[in-house]
Design goal:
Layout lengths: L5 H29 L5 H10 L5 E5 L6 H17 L3 E5 L6 H8 L7 E5 L1 H5 L6 E16 L8 H10 L5 E4 L5 H13 L4 E4 L3 H10 L4 E5 H9 L4 E5 L25 E9 L4 H15 L2 H9 L10 H22 L6
Parallel strand pairs: 1-2, 1-3, 5-6, 5-7
Antiparallel strand pairs: 3-9, 4-7, 4-8, 4-9
């Protein structure tokens, strides 16, 4: 029998991992709608009475990032809705995998949830989680340190081409949306940029402010206060259309990089096999909180577009589309998403 080359073995391993993740994606929609039907009278009663104690939300990144900011904006309203405290715990590390591992191994009773994002799901099967509610699907903001002489994406492209390999872009970790947004930027522009991964966007922001990195694709709620304060410069948003929250910023595509589009999402997930009724109840609570005038104002003021009202099934379908797109980029460009 012929001996496979190292390249063939690596390619086969990538395809196997991709197939397993896509199997997890395909399983999401029926799981989201059906939950676990067995268990039942007890599970149904528990869902009806939920919550009877504090609800813990794991943020798998350090304080100060997009996921952390959003859940803290929602927490007071959810506490009112549930008449129970919402306890936020930051469990950073390994590009979100440490916090994700904690949640995936928790009881499926709804008392341990996660504010997740792209990074948590790139190296972990989606079948290990229950999609509950999309909180925000907003563009990231292409943000540079003021030392970079660029006020538009076109000027950034020109400067980067004249300084190959010198510009460093940070991210909230390997496989995160901020990382993949930068990799897509590199791929379409054919630029030589260095990727510097951090444990979270908050840490990357600190180094951007200090000038240790030059560029960051980041959630608006993380960077816009410093942009408005004159400490950083925002060049564009990464979506196909201009942001409702930041209409003054052009898109990357209209600024000189045709075909570019990237969305940074944040959403609530729980462990696999949560009862359908419980999932729907938690989904309804988050949707109600997202419609609260104060939450909407706070999110829009900080540059984040609140997600429209949607079901857990809607969120599962959204994940299927988004992660399949990044899977294709990761495979074609050989991008490492291991934290």
């Amino acid at each position: 029998m012929a001996v496979q080359s190292t390249h063939q073995l690596e390619s086969n391993q990538v395809e196997r991992r991709r197939a397993l993740r896509l199997m997890g994606i395909a399983a999401l929609a029926p799981l989201a709608s059906a939950g676990v039907q067995s268990g039942s009278a007890w599970a149904q009663d528990a869902a009806r009475n939920f919550p009877v104690k504090p609800v813990r939300v794991i943020v798998p990144f350090p304080p100060g990032g997009g996921a952390d900011t959003l859940i803290r904006q929602l927490a007071p309203i959810l506490t009112e809705i549930w008449a129970q405290p919402l306890v936020i715990e930051n469990k950073p590390g390994a590009s979100g995998q440490i916090g994700g591992d904690m949640v995936s191994k928790s009881s499926a009773d709804g008392y341990t949830l996660m504010m997740g994002s792209t990074a948590v799901l790139n190296e972990r099967s989606l079948a290990q989680f229950t999609p509950i509610a999309l909180v925000s699907a907003s563009p990231y903001v292409v943000t540079v340190h003021p030392s970079i002489p660029a006020r538009t994406v076109a000027e950034l492209l020109s400067f980067a081409r004249s300084h190959p390999g010198e510009l460093r872009f940070g991210s909230s970790g390997a496989g995160s949306a901020s990382h993949l947004s930068g990799e897509l930027f590199k791929a379409l522009s054919h630029l030589d940029l260095q990727h510097i991964p951090y444990k979270g966007t908050g840490q990357a922001l600190t180094d951007l402010l200090a000038g240790h990195i030059n560029l960051l694709f980041a959630p608006a709620q993380t960077v816009m206060p410093n942009v408005q304060g004159g400490k950083l410069r925002a060049l564009a948003v990464t979506s196909a259309r201009r942001s409702v929250a930041l209409p003054e910023l052009p898109t990357v595509a209209e600024s000189g990089l045709a075909g570019y589009e990237s969305i940074g999402w944040f959403g609530v997930l729980g462990p696999a096999r949560m009862p359908a009724g419980l999932v729907q109840q938690i989904n309804a609570a988050f949707n109600k909180a997202l419609q609260h005038p104060k939450v909407r104002k706070d999110m829009l003021d900080r540059g984040s577009d609140p997600a429209p009202t949607g079901s857990d099934e809607d969120f599962a379908r959204f994940l299927q589309t988004d992660l399949a797109k990044w899977e294709k980029l990761i495979r074609e460009k050989g991008i490492s998403v291991s934290g």
